[in-house]
Each structure stands twice: as structure tokens, then as C-alpha cells.
Amino acid sequence: MARVTTNFRCTECSWQSIKWVGRCGECQQWGTVQDSAQPAARVSAVSVPEGRAARAITDIGAESVAHWPSGIAEFDRVLGGGVVPGAAILLSGEPGVGKSTLLLEVASRAAASGQRVLYVSAEESVSQVRLRAERTRALQPSLFLAAETDLATILGQIDQVQPQLVIVDSVQTVSSGLTDGLAGGPSQVREVASTLIRISKDRNLPVLLVGHVTKDGSIAGPRLLEHLVDVVLQFEGDRQTSLRFVRAHKNRFGPTDEVGCFEMTGDGIAEVADPSGLFLSRARTPTSGTCVTIAVEGRRALPVEVQALIVKTQAPQPRRVVNGVDSSRVAMLLAVLERRAGLPLSSFDVYVSTVGGIRVTEPGADLAIALAIASAYKDKAFPVTQAVIGEISLAGEIRPASQAKQRVTEARRLGFSTVIDSDAMHLREAIRLAFASSTAERVDIPDF
């Protein structure tokens, strides 16, 4: 008789324990450790059916993966050219960011091109989805709506409609009667996702799944969900602004460094083909405390204006307030400016922000942040036709940024005549050069 082993296993990461605990010791999830008592049996080998025997990789023909465009160029850019038949795509994002609006637009464009699309809403009724579709002008006769939360019923809808594209909003609200637990639990999400992905592969049917996120920004449910799907997209943006970005965290059919830019309007969501002017203040006269850099989002170079404000304070701990940039990066640059460039900033409140709600975390924007702070400190403005690119080391040296040629080309195309991107320069010399281009006299930056 087989020996019965009693242990407890995490349903999300398979971590094992000899006793029950409320929190997994590996993935730190609550309520996922369950009793997995079962006889320890051995797996026996079976004969391989004819036609499924392993073959040499050189004997297997390469089949090209065909993409069909969704009708939204920015969405196709992130996917690598369009939707691949049989692909499982997971789109995640914070509540209210516009996931349902984007996928409803994708469904409308696909239906307008002659595809039969099934949109399954597990969170809204069909009348609510119809109202949003009417507002965004997404009404198409080939777009079918269904409000279902049961997995078996959704499979029945797929058999009846025979669609060429399926959208499920969202995977955490669908449940299966064959699995215990509430909808959204690890076991339910695993069962629903694996079943839909199996249908997708068997019928060569692309499936788009909407995924909820937790308060820390990660996708809710088991980590296995991201491994099962072919593409993981992140839809992000500040709800206080209209700008939205779609990024690919995983893509088996295309690149993972592309970014799609969208804008939320009263009529729905609109793609932004050239977002170069969204992150500039368009000031006609030079203003102190501002500097323009060329940031790279994916493969796209974008001009970003960095603004800084310096205020004298008597507080023992000056304030450091940032928006759109990394706070630890700004703190490091303030230390470099004070130690290497001789700017006494320890008695000033420093405020740094970007224009347009974009977030820049790459080191290529270091020089723009430093020059914006120096401009605010000296109360002298740079010319509006000047852009700076470069990373600053702790020694005050300027290092070249990645994809420097592409950044300079984009700056020239947008009309920036002066581009400071030299890597053989110290921070003091860069500050002098930037100010000398706007005034006849050189600004005195003390040496040490």
C-alpha cells in the first residue's frame, strides 16, 4: 500500500510546509496554503502515439506567424504588428484607467474589418456596454455582447457565435463550477485562464483577457497566469491627466520595449501617433528653472521638459518634492551639484516636476534635472531651442546616454538647435556652456 504523505502546499507558488500557516513563506500571499494529502505514487512511462514522436529540429519547418492588424496602430505597435491567431493576451491596469474602453475600441475596429467578435463582460450588463459603445461610436453589427460570469456558459457562447476574436472582461470575475473557491481566487483564476487558453490554442482563436491589479500594481491572482498567456500588456497612466501608455512586459510574438501612446477624450480613447509636443510647456519666452531633455520610451524618443523651483528655507530639513522623476535620483543629483559644482542647496526647498504627467526614470535625464535646478538657483533661463542629454556620475562627470544618436536626431527634427550631449565634460563645464548659450557673459560656477 502506498504511503500517505501529509503536507501543505501553496496553490500559487507550490511552496510546501509540514504544518498549516496563514501566509505563504515564499510568495507572502495570504490564504493560499492548503492541505495536499495524497498517496506518493510514481509516474509510469507510456508509449508515444504515432505522429507525436520527437523529431530533429532541422526537420521541422518554420511557419511564419501572421499578424492581422487590429485597426489601432499604437496597439499594433506594442503587439509587434497586430494580433496573432491563437494568441492569449492579458491586459492589466488600475481601475478606471480605461482598459474596457480600449478593448471595446479594439473589438469595434476588428468588427468593422469583417471579423466576428465576442465581447464577454463579467462586470457590466450588456446595456451598460452598449451605452459606452454608443458614446464612443463603437456600434458594429459583427460585434456580439454577452454578460456572463460562468465559464461553461462563456464556452457555450463561443460555440454559438463562432467568433474570430474573444474578449473577456475580466478573468478575475469569471468562475468555474468544477473548481472550489470564489471568483478571483487562485484556483478559480488558474482554471478559467487555462481553459480559455486551451480553447484559444485548439481553435486558433485569439483571446484578450482583462486582468485586475493589486494595490502594489502587480496582477491579481496566481503568478502562473502571466506564464500561461503569450502577451502581458500593462495599461498605465495618471487618471488626473488624459495621457495613457500601453507597455508590453511579455511578448512571444514581438518586442517588449515598445510603447503605445493614447489619449482619453470625451468620445473614448484616441491614439497619439506623434506625442512629441505633449510634454513641453510651449512657453514663448525663456523661463528660469526649466530644461528640455530627450527621453526614450521603448523605441520612441520623446522631448520632456523638466521644471525646478528653489525656495529659501529656515527649516532644519529642507523639503524635496518630486513629480514624474525618481526621488532618490534627484537626491543624488542635489548632492553632486553641491559637492562637485559648488551650489549650496542644503538650505533650499527643492521642487522638481515634469510637464504633461509623464514619468522619467532613466539616467539619461540626469543632466536636464541638474541644469533645471542650477537654472532655478541662478534665476537665469536657458534658450527654448536648447536640449540636453546625459547621465551624471557621482564624480560629476557626464556619461553618454543610451541611443544617443536617436535622441539627437529627434531633437534636431523638433527644432532644437543646441544639443548638449558631450561625454567628455564635467558638470561644471556643462552648466557654464548651457548658460553661455543664452547670455553673453559666463556664469561663475565656483571651483573647489
From TrEMBL:
Signal peptide: none annotated. It comes from the Bacteria. InterPro entries: AAA+_ATPase, DNA_repair_RadA, P-loop_NTPase, RecA_ATP-bd, Ribosomal_Su5_D2-typ_SF, Ribsml_uS5_D2-typ_fold_subgr, Rubredoxin_2. A motif (RadA KNRFG motif) lies at residues 250-254. Pfam families: AAA_25 (PF13481), ChlI (PF13541), Zn_ribbon_LapB (PF18073). ATP binds at residues 93-100. DNA-dependent ATPase involved in processing of recombination intermediates, plays a role in repairing DNA breaks. Stimulates the branch migration of RecA-mediated strand transfer reactions, allowing the 3' invading strand to extend heteroduplex DNA faster. Binds ssDNA in the presence of ADP but not other nucleotides, has ATPase activity that is stimulated by ssDNA and various branched DNA structures, but inhibited by SSB. Does not have RecA's homology-searching function. Plays a role in repairing double-strand DNA breaks, probably involving stabilizing or processing branched DNA or blocked replication forks. Belongs to the RecA family. RadA subfamily. The middle region has homology to RecA with ATPase motifs including the RadA KNRFG motif, while the C-terminus is homologous to Lon protease. This is DNA repair protein RadA. It comes from Salinibacterium xinjiangense. The gene is radA.
